[in-house]
């Protein structure tokens, strides 16, 4: 692929990997948002900050990637925080819900995503999925919550 080679060239000649654009996004955030897995991999291998946040909306590479659903596994495997910081607007799980990415939601939950985390408007991932009419996602969350309740009931017995 040509883009990572060009990235390596830029990085070799001193391009700062943590530059922020007018939206406060770093190159890794832009790669995550655009769904460019190989570009994200090259940036991570060259020291890109995995949990850097934008200034205004406190977005991370993971939150930006979760709406598209393409890059998050790489970011999670590289140490991205699965739950949002207190001053952030949206959690990765909420954005996966908005995008209807069921497999990504399963991965986030497996990695410890908080199902009850609310965004800046007070919405949980379940509420966002309902608002965005993500029927498959709603069924997935409902099934997951029922499994959790079943296991908790069995533990109490």
TrEMBL record:
One of its GO terms (cellular component) is cytoplasm. The keyword Disulfide bond does not apply. Pfam families: Ank (PF00023), Ank_2 (PF12796). The keyword Repeat applies. InterPro entries: Ankyrin-KH/SAM_domain, Ankyrin_rpt, Ankyrin_rpt-contain_sf. GO terms for biological process: innate immune response. Keywords: ANK repeat, Repeat. ANK repeats lie at residues 23-55, 88-120. This is Uncharacterized protein. It comes from Anas platyrhynchos platyrhynchos. The lineage of its organism: Eukaryota, Metazoa, Chordata, Craniata, Vertebrata.
């Amino acid at each position: 692929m040509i883009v990572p080679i060009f990235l390596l060239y830029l990085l070799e000649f001193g391009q700062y990997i943590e530059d922020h654009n007018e939206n406060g996004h770093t190159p890794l955030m832009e790669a995550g948002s655009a769904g460019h897995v190989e570009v994200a991999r090259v940036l991570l291998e060259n020291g890109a900050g995995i949990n850097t946040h934008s200034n205004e909306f406190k977005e991370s590479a993971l939150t930006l990637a979760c709406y598209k659903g393409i890059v998050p596994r790489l970011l999670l495997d590289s140490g991205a925080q699965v739950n949002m910081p207190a001053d952030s607007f949206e959690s990765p799980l909420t954005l996966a819900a908005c995008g209807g990415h069921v497999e990504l939601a399963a991965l986030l939950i497996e990695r410890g995503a908080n199902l009850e985390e609310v965004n800046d408007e007070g919405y949980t991932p379940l509420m966002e999925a309902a608002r965005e009419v993500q029927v498959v996602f709603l069924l997935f969350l409902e099934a997951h919550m029922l499994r959790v309740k079943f296991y908790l009931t069995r533990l109490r017995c």
